[in-house]
Fold this sequence. Notes:
Number of strands: 19
Mean pLDDT: 90
Structural class: alpha+beta
CATH class of the largest domain: Alpha Beta
Strand order of the largest sheet: 8-2-1-9-19-18
Largest sheet: 6 strands, mixed
CATH topology of the largest domain: FAD/NAD(P)-binding domain
CATH superfamily of the largest domain: FAD/NAD(P)-binding domain
Number of helices: 13
Radius of gyration: 22 Å
Amino acid sequence: MKIRVIGGGLAGPEAALTAARLGCEVDLYELRTVVDGKPRLTPAHQTTEFGELVCSNSLKSESPHTAPWLLKQEMRRGGSALLRMADETAVPAGHALAVDRVEFSRRISEAIAAEPGIRVIREEVTSLEADAGGAQYTIVATGPLTSDALSAEIERLTGAGRLAFYDSISPIVDAESIDMERVYFAARWDKGTADYINCPMDREEYDRFYDALVAAEAAEEKEWEKLDYFEGCLPIEVLARRGRDTLRFGPMKPVGLRDPRTGKTPWAVVQLRKENLRADSYNLVGFQNHLKYGEQARVLRLIPGLENARFLRYGQIHRNTYIQAPLLLDEHLRLKKAPHLLFAGQISGVEGYTESIATGMLAGLYAASLARGVEPAPVPRGTALGSLVHYITHAEARDFQPANITFDLLEPLEEELRKKIRDKKERHRIQCERALEVFDAWLGTLSGA
């Protein structure tokens, strides 16, 4: 049983480790490599390591009975290797699961190197023909920066063209350059541990920052750029132009972040989240942007506490390519026109680290089962993972955009029960318990999983 996996981000390594665990021989292809002593990278990556996180270091909420928590619980029960490594490399982040991105990537690379069933091939894949390299099935998990040649091959096979939006990266600041006299640690509503640094603004400070932000000069647009942003990850300057108070009800929302030094809630707050356990660097939560580096430095130093900030990485923008999954994929993530191909991760139409890993795990489970000649039962709609797959395979294709896991995607409770239980948290608790029961039952149907 041989599987080919293309892509060394998150979904690809998860799929490879899952299929290898189930007895498959796996060829894992990755474009990033070292040529003549120099790294060959994508526009967004900084290393050739597997599982490099190029945007945030957060895998979202671990608060019980939330949609991201439910998806991660299903993944843990399904044996997700990368989620286990995320748990092992977690850094304090309140109710979120955030990781030390360097250690996380290192653990993934080590796990792949230690797996005898995985052979790593550092080269670009340009053909998706059946039986390539002797593989029975191929999992395409090339993510948001699929190469032009492979994108053209996908376009040839699908006949539907490719869709692209642009994803952004938040700045990272050196912890030693933060003026700790002007900031405070707190968790929203004092829930969980106070792991975030909060930079409070009064109204005058906010207005000065806002005016500078909306007037800042954007980075030069490349020929290949068509600025078609994903609504769930808008650059902060684009969001700000929707109205003066938009940021105060979005990434700079001060509600629940009372300043313990004054006892008052600020007019606006910028939150900083740890990048690693050493706490020597922090990223600006929600501050992805497409501004010139000099402009970023000027504007971001208007934030209280960051007047003398040293930026280890500025915000950037990069392409994110995904297929029209509702037209192209079946419920097993297979390409309808070429069922030897499965798609996973962001190229399949999901958004987010956790969702990418989850679909990688699912594709690995499916491919391993199919390679044994067994048609696996599709993950049920009543689960978080099943709801995510249901969305990408059944959404309106014309207006299709990638999705994170939310309760809006899950099956609602029966109308009678919804009327009886008015409390939203209680309804979510019941949905989560039902979903986990259904997921466990489905896992039991997968031979060898």
